[in-house]
Amino acid sequence: MSAAVVPARRRKGVGLGLVAWLAGILFFLPIAWMALTSFHSEQDAATNPPSFTAALTLDGYREFFGTGGGASPWPALLNSTVASVVSTLCVLLLALPAAYALSIRPVKKWTDVLFFFLSTKMLPVVAGLLPIYLFAKNAGMLDNIWLLVILYTAMNLPIAVWMMQSFLAEVPVAVIEAARVDGARLPTVLGRIVAPIALPGIAATALICFIFSWNELLFARVLTGVVAETAPVFLTGFITSQGLFLAKVCAASLVISLPVLAAGFAAQDKLVQGLSLGAVK
Amino acid sequence: MTATTTAPTTATPVRATGRPPARLRDWATRAPLLPALIFMIAVTQLPFVATLVISFFDWNALYPKARHFTGVDNYRQVLTDADLRHSVWTTVLLTVAVVLVSLVLGLALALLLDRRFRGRGVVRTLLIAPFLVVPVAAALLWKHVLYNPEYGLLNGLLHYVGGPQPDWISNTPLLAVEAALVWQWTPFMMLILLAGLQSRDQQQIEAARVDGASDWQIFRHLTLPHLRRYLELGALLGSIYIVQNFDAVFTITSGGLGTANLPYTVYQSFYQAHENGLASAAGVLVVIGSIIIATFALRVVSSLFREEVSRA
């Protein structure tokens, strides 16, 4: 490359870097504004033009957490935590052995099985919603958080099987065979060889399953009521305007999104692999 | 990709000893798979079969005694009902618009992020954030905080430049839903396309540059063909998720103003109108639509997958 070309290229690079920064800020702006509004008083939140420098207060959060007299979000947050965490654990429990049988010690036609799991993910939720509702009604399981645990486990299992299959496939078979020849038993092989290589991937899988369960609305909306209501269902209470309530809405949205934001950033590197069902690495 | 040694040829497991009979060994290999497989069939396939059966019955939950078999009557009704037909059209419009726009924006952002610049990691994090807001929360954010005609941020910013103060949701309801979804799905497309860009053959690009190819020529003849399958994958996965979208429609417009898509209509026809048969027929139609998309999606995934396996 000649000396004259370099500065031109660099200048263009700086310019495009600025464009990238601008795009990033633009996309983040609604979230930043939501965070700022959540710390404003309701009066300051509802001004036009917007007040960027209004005094900060925790009133929105106090109002949201029910000390202002509204319904407390704690039961909903607890339900969401149970549904997401327990279903994620169930997913791991079912997906790990399955992924093992699809990668390290593959069954015959393992690709067909893998694609069966994927195809279930393409069946829209609404297709099974009514029978599940009727079943729950007859079995007395409406408004029961454990029903959601079962459904969320099924919802995330295909993604988890795909992701874990691709993570376990990265464990070199030669090493496993060598350990076997040396007389290592299965638990030793799993604990000493497979786990250290696959653990970051398994953790990312768990985080992604957690996100999807935490976000889910349709099942929760149809199948739960007052007792088993989850956090997204709690949020639907804000759909109709209730006078000046912007700060409260922002506080609620932010608090309920925090676990997802945290899990998402923690799994950032493996996020694509999970979302593309393991097709992209 | 290091050792992805699971090519079908290595499918025969380690045969340490030949003692257990072959059939027993086969079942021992299959055993870890069975719980997951049986669970999936029970929870996802059985309800769908039930939906299929119910879709052939005239069944209003408020009049359970009047339930009877009607053949394809529900389908005839769904396909001739003006509201339902409109919701099919809305679903198509919503899905195509959101997928196309977020794909183009995602490609632009991925190209920007593929370059080295100061703070690239921070910008990447800022861009991913919209995807990590709970969908209902994101929809509420757009509905109340951005779109509100009196004190929303959009009109607030327009106020500064003396622009008009439109009522976004009432004037352009579908566009309002689409914009909120594009904001959430652009990061998804960007992540997939960025992964595609980073898997390019750098030597080939360097060689083209040495041979005097311009940036545009490199993009047009090297990058774009390489990205084709990643674009397809993004479009198809995006379609599968957005065809099913319920949260944004439910939250922003509550299905009003002509924005009711098929999932919302199915929800409404059994949850509010208690028309079990009609809802099932509409549900089956959603499935048929999804299967058409899914067939292509599976093909793309399997071609990428095979490439991964054969690269090992």
UniProtKB/TrEMBL annotation, chain A:
InterPro entries hit by this protein: BP-dep_ABC_trans_perm, MetI-like, MetI-like_sf
PANTHER family from the UniProt entry: ABC TRANSPORTER PERMEASE PROTEIN, MALTOSE TRANSPORT SYSTEM PERMEASE-RELATED
Membrane-traversing stretches: 12-36, 82-102, 114-133, 145-168, 189-213, 219-238, 245-267
GO biological process: transmembrane transport
All copies of domain ABC transmembrane type-1, residue ranges: 77-267
Taxonomic superkingdom: Bacteria
Pfam family, one: BPD_transp_1
Protein name: Sugar ABC transporter permease
Automatic annotation (TrEMBL), chain B:
Alphabetical UniProt keywords: Cell membrane, Membrane, Transmembrane, Transmembrane helix, Transport
Domain ABC transmembrane type-1: 88-297
Membrane spanning residue stretches: 33-57, 88-113, 125-145, 174-197, 230-257, 277-301
Domain of life: Bacteria
InterPro entries linked to this entry: MetI-like, MetI-like_sf
Name of a matching Pfam family: BPD_transp_1
Membrane-topology annotation of the record: Multi-pass membrane protein
GO cellular-component term (any): plasma membrane
Biological process annotations from GO: transmembrane transport
Family: Belongs to the binding-protein-dependent transport system permease family.
Protein name: Sugar ABC transporter permease
Organism placement in taxonomy: Bacteria, Bacillati, Actinomycetota, Actinomycetes, Kitasatosporales
